[in-house]
Design brief:
Radius of gyration: 21 Å
Number of strands: 16
Shape: globular
Helix content: 40-55%
Strand content: 5-15%
Strand order of the largest sheet: 4-3-2-5-1-6-7-8
Length: 421
């Protein structure tokens, strides 16, 4: 096989859907070693948590960029293309830069496999690509979102963290992270570095105790964000009504963004970011697929676990309490969907189930529909999201697309709504 063909096949693998995660730091450590350890020359704001990580990350990048810092952002999963995972000052890595760096990573992957006997995972490849690019771009800070957990997540290969941030902790990926909040919190708290400041969102007592214990053990200053409450909103965008940032309207939709904003504000203050830049970030950050309005009667929300679905339900109760709803849903096969479906259940609601296109991890649409019908829900399955959306439109109800972030790409590429925003 020629190098050109090998490179093309590697790029195809790197750009396909992520395979099942493999936790551990040996492979990523060796991979980055063969790339010159670019991560050691960068400064990181490392963000872990169950829900809200991405929103906190985009708030922080927007704040830091406005304050004059060249700021990298590494998030997952991507919604349309892998380029979205690696971003500097709001601009995604270009195809040319991505493919050029992937060629470098390809060679390092071969050396890594020879050394440790394991070929790097897609997430490790993407992480390595980001580190190389952020160093090339001369980033002052990199806002780095964990992929799964924290302690053994590939991103935790870094040693130059300046601030660890932990967003809301709940049960998810229990087969990897544990079946109690304490166990999950311990994995998330694994990103905390010796002597470095830690900022946490408001947590349950069980999760907070673990974060306190790890922070104390590692000699860190720990700061908990306070909850923000407000009775003001514009459409689906909350307006802070008390305190230093009273009157600020968040650019991300949903009442759950108040907790994310509070966490980001505290992190920014810990980094000595000026108030005007904090306000800019709160009002200009963008994060697609998170309670995003896609049309006059359609919203997409990436909620894919019970905690996220509960946040979605709170948003729907706040903004659309008296509106009949129809849900278009997909889910990964390893998800326990029963609790999420029970949260969404209400009189007059319908469910249109689909599988995520070209994703072997996706639960089949009919299998999902059967699970919903077993709970007494009005559920049916469809061949694809275009067919499901047409059926949902006929109901005349508010359309909510949720259950998997991967469904976003299917919706956009189906061209159901050319002007979807």
């Amino acid at each position: 096989m020629s190098y050109y063909r090998a490179s093309k096949e590697f790029t195809g693998y790197a750009n396909s859907f992520q395979s099942v995660a493999r936790l551990g730091l040996e492979s990523i450590s060796v991979l980055l070693k063969h790339l010159g350890n670019p991560q050691d020359k960068l400064k990181f704001i490392h963000v872990a948590g169950t829900n809200g990580k991405g929103s906190v990350c985009v708030f922080l990048q927007s704040m830091l960029t406005h304050a004059g810092f060249k700021t990298g952002l590494y998030t997952s999963p991507n919604m349309i293309c892998v380029n979205e995972r690696v971003n500097v000052d709001g601009k995604n890595i270009s195809d040319d830069d991505m493919h050029r760096i992937l060629d470098m990573v390809n060679e390092a992957c071969k050396l890594t496999e020879k050394e440790v006997g394991l070929y790097p995972t897609q997430f490790e490849i993407w992480t390595a690509m980001g580190m190389v690019y952020f160093l090339e771009q001369g980033c002052d800070y990199v806002v780095l979102e964990t992929g799964l957990g924290g302690r053994l997540d590939a991103t935790n290969v870094i040693t130059t963290t300046v601030l660890s941030v932990i967003t809301h902790i709940a049960l998810d990926h229990t087969q990897y992270l544990g079946d109690t909040l304490s166990k999950v919190a311990f994995e998330k708290a694994g990103i905390i570095k010796q002597g470095k400041d830690v900022v946490s969102a408001y947590q349950s007592a069980e999760a907070a105790e673990v974060i306190k214990s790890v922070s104390e053990e590692r000699g860190c200053n720990l700061y908990f964000a306070e909850k923000i409450s407000t009775d003001k909103y514009d459409g689906v965008y909350e307006i802070i009504s008390k305190g230093e940032f009273s009157g600020v309207k968040l650019s991300l939709g949903g009442i759950n963004q108040l907790d994310n904003a509070s966490c980001a504000i505290l992190a920014a203050k810990t980094l000595n970011i000026p108030k005007e830049s904090i306000v800019y970030g709160l009002t200009h950050a963008k994060h697609v697929g998170r309670f995003e309005k896609m049309g006059t009667d359609t919203y997409f929300d990436g909620a894919h676990n019970p905690d996220g679905v509960l946040a979605l339900r709170k948003n729907l109760d706040r903004y659309f309490a008296d509106t009949k709803k129809v849900y278009i849903m997909a889910a990964m096969a390893d998800k326990e969907v029963g609790e999420s479906l029970e949260i969404l259940k209400e009189e007059g609601c319908e469910f249109k189930m689909v599988a995520v296109k070209d994703n072997e991890r996706s639960m089949g649409g009919e299998e999902f529909a059967k699970k919903a019908r077993a709970l007494g829900l009005d559920a049916s399955s469809y061949e694809d999201i275009k067919e499901a959306y047409a059926a949902a439109k006929k109901t005349g109800k508010l359309i909510i697309i949720c259950g998997s972030l991967y469904l976003y790409k299917d919706f956009v590429e189906s061209k159901i709504l050319p002007e979807y925003k």
